[in-house]
């Protein structure tokens, strides 16, 4: 009968429920054990086998849950490493393109759209900055931007 106390409280509650014994969750393990022992159809060997089965199922579920957690953590770690590599590659490509490529004024005017005064200038400047990061060295930004905007705005900036 001491075997009834070897599992966790949840194991004893599951065993009691299998035999139709109603158990409150605030009861202690010895009290749950007493409720199981007081059953009319109590058979020690059957209870021992059933409790062992319940404990084994719980342990297997815990191991499976731990394995799933480990797989999820490894996957997240790989995704994080991949994201870091992507960012590093983008940074290297951007650095190489801004150093190696010298875009002429004509080519830059073909690559960038001219500013339309009816469009939001903040949006235009954000798009220009994004494209300029990829195509131009920072020293040429102002020169190319002045060539793309209207003369009135260019005089205000200059």
Number of contiguous helices: 7
Counting DSSP E segments of at least 2 residues, the number of strands comes to 0
Percentage beta strand: under 5%
Can you summarize the main beta sheet? Answer: none
Q: In terms of per-residue confidence, which ranges show pLDDT below 50 for 5 or more consecutive residues? A: 99-103
Q: Kindly state the percentage of residues in helix.
A: over 70%
Query: What radius of gyration results from the CA coordinates?
Result: 36 Å
> Which descriptor suits the 3D outline?
rod-shaped
Instruction: Give the averaged pLDDT, no decimals.
Output: 77
Helix and strand succession? HHHHHHH
Q: How would you classify the helix and strand content by structural class?
A: mainly alpha
CA distance, first residue to last residue: 93 Å
Coiled coil: 56-90
Keywords: Coiled coil
Description:
The protein is rod-shaped and about 100 Å long. By secondary structure, the protein is mostly helical. The chain contains seven helices and no strands. 8% of the residues are buried. Helices cover 72% and strands 0% of the residues.
Descriptive tags:
single chain; mainly alpha; 158 residues
Topology overview:
Blueprint: H1 9-18, H2 29-37, H3 44-100, H4 105-111, H5 121-135, H6 141-148, H7 151-157
Helix pairs in contact: 1-2, 1-3
Summarize the structure.
This protein is mostly helical and 158 residues long. It contains 7 helices and no strands.
